[in-house]
Amino acid sequence: MTSTGHWHLTRTFPSSAGEVRWDRLGDSGAPPVVLLHGTPFSSYVWRAVARTLAARGHQVYVWDMPGYGQSEKREGQDVSLGAQGTVFAELLAHWAPRTPPAVVAHDFGGTTALRAHLLHGARYHRLALVDPVALAPWGTSFFRLVGQHAEVFEQLPPHLHAALVREYIGTASARGLHPAVAEELAAPWLGPAGQGAFYRQIAQSDQRWTDEIEGRYGELDLPVLVCWGEDDTWIPLERGRALTARIPGAAFIPIPGAGHLVQEDAPAELTGALLEFLAS
Fold first, then answer.
1. Where are the domains of the chain?
2. Using one digit for the tens of pLDDT, what is the confidence trace for 57-111?
3. Which positions ≥6 away from 246 have C-beta within 8 Å?
4. What is the spatial distance between Cα 237 and Cα 219, in angstroms, rounded to a whole number?
5. 38 DSSP assignment
6. Peptide bond into 137 cis (omega under 30)
7. Cα separation of 8 and 19, whole Å?
8. pTM of the entire predicted model
9. pLDDT per residue as tens digits for the range 222-248
């Protein structure tokens, strides 16, 4: 991992859904933690949390899902939540940490982690879910509109597409994103490859990927923490409480002043909750 202000993943893995870019921070002998991002984001949203966890005695794995961030983007690529769960199980087998890792997952990353565990047998030491996509129905009205007409949105002029992406990403924050952060989050979706990838991942989003596992959350037999931004307008706070109630022994921490992008709105509060959970 570079030490500059930019977030650059230096390693690659040839997954079944395309080349995945990933990296590792911290002491290789320290307890492993894996961070999963959601949509339309990348591992960049975890940069502050990842660096803090690494500095506090954890070996931290970060990766961009196929079709996202710095990972491969191509026409015809399967970037569905079904594919992402399979890829995560493949990555864990490739990394082969000495002990099962703690997993921290946001948004679609939550679905990915849950599917890998419940359907593919991926083993975790503990699981933290941050505003995850887990309970039906899900998807903002904009998200559903684009999913139904992706082929039309793909033809937008680049400047209109760029404005749409920036505006959409901005609504994930309750406090407002720093302009430089907003640009970093939008950058992977700009240009011909990025524009196609942005609408591809929305078009392939399907509630059946969560329907398949929603009835199995009661089977989770490991420590689980659910964190939720109190001002999340993408997935309301009550969904977090409902999800927590379905998981035996799960703890719930609402985070004041944070929207869906808790990592950007309240990084210190989220990191503190994660450090306490990982140490418990």
1. 14-138+207-279
2. 999 999 999 999 999 999 999 999 999 999 999 999 999 999 999 999 999 999 9
3. 217, 218
4. 23
5. -
6. yes
7. 15
8. 0.95
9. 999 999 999 999 999 999 999 999 999
Opening angle at CA 149, ends 145 and 155, nearest 5: 120
Taking the CB of residue 177, how many other CB atoms lie within 10 A of it? 21
Contact 50, 9 (CB under 8 A): no
- The CATH code of domain 14-138+207-279 reads 3.40.50.1820
Q: Which tokens go with 215?
A: 């009835």
Which residues are CB-contacts of 191 (< 8 A; sequence separation ≥ 6)? 158
Rounded to whole angstroms, the Cα distance separating 80 from 96 reads 24
| Partners of 34 in beta bridges | 61, 103
Sign of CA dihedral 180, 183, 188, 190: negative
Classify burial at 114, counting beta carbons within 10 Å of its beta carbon; exposed 0-12, middle 13-18, buried 19 or more. buried
Distance between CA 33 and CA 14 in Å, rounded?
21
Task: Count how many Cα atoms sit within 13 Å of the Cα of residue 180 in the half-sphere of its side chain.
Answer: 3
Smallest CA-to-CA distance from 128 within 146, 158, 147, 107 is with 107
Token couple for 199 = 């609408």
Q: What angle (nearest 5°) sits at the alpha carbon of residue 117, between those of residues 203 and 254?
A: 75
